[in-house]
Fold this protein.
Amino acid sequence: MKKIVIVLALLALIIAGVFLLNRSLNVRQPLVTDKNPVIIGFSLGTTREERWSTDRDLFIQKAKELGAVVNIASSDYDAVLQASQIENLASQGAKVIVVLPSDSEALAPVIEKVKAEGVKIIAYDRLIKNSNIDLYISFDSVKVGQLEASSVLAVVGSGSFAYIGGAPTDNNAFLVKEGTMKVLDPKIQNGEIQLVVNEFMEGWKPDEAYRTIKEYLATGGRLDAVIAANDGTAFGTIQALKEKGLDGKIPVSGQDAELSACQRIIAGTQTSTVYKPINLLAYKTAEIAVAMANGQAPESNNVMNNGLIDVPSYLIEPTLVTKENMQATIIKDGYHTYEEVYETGTK
C-alpha cells in the first residue's frame, strides 16, 4: 500500500512540474508570437512598363527573406490615387514606404504628411522633388543618357538627330536628357548635329513616340539618328521608321533592356539599350528599407538635391548593351535567356 501511495505522489509531482513548466512557457511565448512584424509599404506609381512588375516581385522576395511584411499599392500614373494609397499604407503600420512616384512633384504634400507621422520614405528609381525624403535609390540616369548618346554617335557622327524623351512628370526623364546633351552639345554647337526633334513623351508612351516621329517624317524631314529615352519609346520610334522603310537604317537607342528591345537589337532595328540590373536595385532597396525600419541610418554613396534638401542617395552604375556584348551581359546574368533573345523571334 505504501508503494502505491509513493508512486501516486511521484506522479502528482511530475504532473505539477509539467503544468508549471507549460505555464512558464505560455507566459514567455507571446513575447515572440505577439511581436509586431516589420511592415514595409511599396507604392508603385505605375506597372505599365515591363520592368516594374519585376522590381515589385524581387523587392517582395528579398524583404520576406529579411523577415518583413510588404504591403503593395499601384496607381498607374494617377498621382491623386497614389497619394491616397501612400496615406493608406502609413495607416496600415508601414514604418518605411518605398515610393516609385507617378509624378515627381505632385506627391510632396502627402510625403510631408506621413513623414510627420514618423514614417520613413525611400524614393525608388525616380526622385521625389521638394520633399523631405530619407533616401533616393536608383541607377545613374545621367550616365544612362550619356551611354545612349555615345552608342548612337558610334554609328552616325553627324546629321539630323531626334531626341525622344521620357515623361515630363518624371525627374529621371530630365536626368537622362541631361546626360544625352552632355554628349551631343559640343557637336550641336559646332553645327555637326541638328536637333530636329526634341520632345518629351507623356507617360513614356510608345504611341506618343510613334506619332512624333511619324509626323516629322510626313513633312519630308530628314532623320539620321534617334535617341529614345527608353525601350518603349524606341519601339514607337522604330514602328514609325518602318512605315518609311527606314527601320534598321537609322540608329535608335533605348534603356531598360526589355526582351523585345534585346530581340530588336539582334534583328538590327535597334542599336542599343542600357541594362540596369533590376535585381541589384530591388534587393538593395529591400535591405535598406528593413534596416531603416529597425532604426538604422540609410546606406548611401551619393547626394542628389531635390529642390528642398540634399537627399542621401544610392546610385548603381548602368551598362550599355549592343549586339556585340548581348551574351556577355544580358544572357550571362540570366536577365533574359539565350532562347528568348535569339530564338523566340524578333519584333
The chain is about 45% helix and 20% strand. Residues 1-8, 13-34 have pLDDT under 50 and may be disordered. The two ends are 94 Å apart (CA to CA).
